[in-house]
Design goal:
The complex is a heterodimer of chains A (220) and B (264).
Chain A: E1 7-11, E2 16-20, H1 26-39, E3 49-54, H2 62-73, E4 78-84, H3 94-97, E5 100-104, E6 112-115, E7 118-122, E8 130-133, E9 137-143, E10 146-149, E11 159-164, E12 168-171, E13 174-176, E14 190-195, E15 198-203, H4 207-211
Parallel strand pairs in A: 2-3, 3-4, 5-7, 6-8, 7-9, 8-10, 9-11, 10-12
Antiparallel strand pairs in A: 1-2, 11-14, 12-13, 14-15
Chain B: E1 3-8, H1 16-29, E2 34-38, H2 46-50, H3 60-64, H4 70-73, E3 75-76, E4 83-86, H5 99-109, E5 115-119, H6 126-133, E6 137-142, H7 146-161, E7 168-174, H8 176-180, H9 187-194, E8 197-203, H10 206-214, H11 225-237, H12 246-260
Helix pairs in contact in B: 1-11, 5-6
Classes of the chains: A alpha/beta (220), B alpha/beta (264).
Amino acid sequence: MTGKTYVTIKGTKEGLVFLLDDQCEFVDLLDELNAKLDKHVQQFTGPIVHIFIKLGARHLEEEDKERIRAILRRQGNLLIQSIESDPPAADPVEIPGTSLHTMTGIVRSGQTLEYSGHLLLLGDVNPGGTIRCTGDVYILGALRGAVHAGIDGDVDAIIAASLMKPTQLRIAEIISRPPDEWTSAEPWMEYAFLRDGTMAIDKMTSLSRQRKEVMQFKGV
Amino acid sequence: MGEAIVVTSGKGGVGKTTTSANLGTALAMMGKKVCMVDTDIGLRNLDVVMGLENRIVYDLIDVAEGRCRVNQALIKDKRFDELYMLPAAQTKDKNDISPDQVRQIIESLKPDFDYIIIDCPAGIEQGFRNAIAGASQAIVVTTPENAAVRDADRVIGLLEKSNFPSPKLIINRIRPNMMRSGDMLEIEDICQVLAIDLIGIVPDDELVIKAANSGEPTVMNANSRASIAYRNIARRILGETVPLSQLEEKAGMFRKVKKFLGMG
């Protein structure tokens, strides 16, 4: 065993909090827990003490939790209240991107709509109108103007529209204009994305395959 | 208090002045007291279309700069007692008057008239800002061409920004046969893009050119197809419900019969 402490014990109003290191080997952790309990055996006698165990970022299976409980049970007055891990930290890159902002109105010729984040427009983009957005652009209406998604270089940004008849589409650094590079105007909703650095159009239902997001559905 | 309506389009040559002259005259024919104001300073036309050019003494700039009272500058129409026009200056340009001055002049006209029709110059610069300054309602004129629709869209955006909540749309110079053959933008497509209320469609009519050259507004001619369309628009401005496609269908039926007989 090294001199580094893997187990920190803190006293609180409710009882004792055991802060267990989340980087070391689990076996080392158990060893030190054993050692600590043996060392402070005097302090752990007397009235019932509530124990809160915090695992940090470590996630344990039930049988490993049981091994910790078994060690603490050797002291008759220790009552384990909880064994907790920190909630998984949100991916920091995702935080600014996932905010979806809804706007209502028509972007007419000569008007520019700018937003950082994902944008949902309830309305049309007319020829001569422009949307510039750092994230995705979803248009519940007709896209007849120009849209630039991922203006800060996000090549995963998409542009979706109920009616896809744009004058120009841009994602990150890629500029594309129909119908030279692709044609559309299908009766179903479509989205534009970058496939190997070139603009591609696909129907909305293909997006789930591309993004592989796990959805949980209710029902059978 | 009268209602001030600006007739605008963005693009030039789509028929703003013709529309202003004909709507003004049509409203006067229906017994309303109407004043038409030409704000196209430097390129005035409304007086020519109305055949009143030789009666001009004072103009809009004279009123703005206090050289005359607004009543002195008003020209009474030669056909209707209740129809007047305020001409633009020909020797100045758009920057010689400010939106505030126009607003004041329009406000001073409102108590004396039922309708004030403001003819707007092409473009979206100072002249446009002058023209919309005194108005409370706007009519946007377009033709079934991409360029005109694009400019109309731009102007609608500017109008919405300047607190015109619901501009009305006139589609001018429609050729039903071209529209049927798909060589011209469809009315429905235009309305879908511009997304404002359609207040009238006017067929392309040679009589309009003839009338403008003779200084007689088309609405005076009962036989012109455009005349019926303008009168219908005037009735809609007065709040009547007039179905839109009446004229189109009639012309369509006639052509169909002609075509059937091998004459079309």
